[in-house]
Amino acid sequence: MLEQLESLYGQGLAELEALTDSASLHEWHIRYLGKKGELTLLLRNMGGIPKEDRPSFGKRANEVKEALTAAHLERTAQVEEQELATDLQEGQIDITLPGRQQKVGGLHPSTRTFRDLFRIWGEMGFQIYRSRDVEDDETNFTLLNMPPHHPARDMQDTFYTTEPNIIMRTHTSPGQIRAMRELGENGTRPIRVILPGMCYRFEQITARSEVQFHQMEGLVVGRNIRMSDLKGTIAAFAERMFGVGTGVRFRASYFPFTEPSMEVDIECFLCGGKGCNVCKYSGWLEILGSGMVHPTVLQNGGYDPTQWSGFAFGMGPERITLLKHGIRDIRYFWSNDARFLDQF
Ligand code: PHE
């Protein structure tokens, strides 16, 4: 049995020497020194040894056990150190590698134009009134002096919904009715608001027209509002938006909800009115529709048109942005192409 013990000792040490990872070291410990390990089994069979030999065998067995335990500890320490070194080597961070560029987001060009508009109209005493995108036919058309079958309805191809008479607004003008009814207190209070928002038209998408686009409406209602107020307000706006000295031109036009109606051109801010390819060599850029609020519309808003008057205007922020930056195609606006958006 002593021979067995010695050979177990030698074999254990040799095996231990060959182990290079902590998992097999753990296994080794179970196999030799564990509760059912080989050394433990050997000691349990000590009964087979002559009585007089037992003390010396026991002493030697304990020495072997201690030696193996110590050798295991030592080998474990070596292997762990080795493993740590490998880890550090493999997981090394190359601090000389250049970092990845973080992209900083920006505001959409339409948002920027809206913010310019809000600031300017805010300075001029206008408040923002948010109307709805989903409208009823009556507010979008009829109350704006376009009864069913009115030919002007054809100018605005409409998105209908499956709900009868519920449509996507084709312009921000129905907000005039909602603002007058909500803020006017039965036609007793003056109003000075802008109405920004998305509009929808069932049109062919081209470089010039999209099925959805923003508009910004303006509405002023008061006791003595005259066309000179409209002209002065628009002229003041044009100077703030496009630069001091920017000229404006009013052309007679037609909208069912204003009378008289005018389209407004500003002096081309790219060529200073001399003529260029953006203003098509006319020196003028059309930027908005406007007019004095039609008496029928005032009435539909709850006002007595013999006592109250007002003016309204509507403009397209995308169009203004196109002109300002010389963008050739309106489809870029909602294409979500970062190469386009990054330029602003
Ligand atoms: N709603 C008109 C359009 O979409 C613009 C407009 C607004 C004209 C207010 C006059 C007054 O073309």
What structural category do the secondary elements indicate?
A: alpha+beta
Task: Please list the strands of the largest sheet in the order they lie side by side.
Answer: 1-4-5-9-8-7-6
* CATH architecture descriptor text of the largest domain: 2-Layer Sandwich
Secondary-structure element string = HHHHHEEHEHEEHEEEHEHH
CATH third-tier fold name of the largest domain = BirA Bifunctional Protein, domain 2
Helical amount: 25-40%
Report on the biggest sheet: 7 strands, mixed
Shape: rod-shaped
Structural domain tally: 2
The whole-angstrom Rg is 43 Å
Total E-strand runs: 9
Distinct bound molecules: phenylalanine
Oligomer: single chain
Mean pLDDT: 93
Q: Give the C-level CATH assignment of the largest domain.
A: Alpha Beta
Strand content: 15-25%
Q: How far from one another are the termini?
A: 90 Å
CATH superfamily of the largest domain: Bira Bifunctional Protein, Domain 2
User: pLDDT under 50 segments (min length 5)?
Assistant: none
Number of helices: 11
Task: Give an overview of the whole structure.
Helices cover 40% and strands 19% of the residues. Helix 2 runs antiparallel to helix 4 and helix 5 packs across helix 10. Strand 6 and strand 7 form a beta hairpin. It has two domains: 2-90; 109-341, Bira Bifunctional Protein, Domain 2 (BirA Bifunctional Protein, domain 2, 2-Layer Sandwich), CATH 3.30.930.10. The protein has a seven-stranded mixed beta sheet, with helices on both faces. A two-stranded antiparallel ribbon has the order 2-3. It has helices spanning 2-18, 22-33, 38-44, 54-90, 109-123, 137-140, 174-183, 227-242, 295-300, 317-325, 338-341, and strands at residues 127-128, 134-136, 166-168, 191-200, 212-222, 248-255, 258-267, 284-293, 309-315. Phenylalanine (PHE) binds next to strand 8 and strand 9.
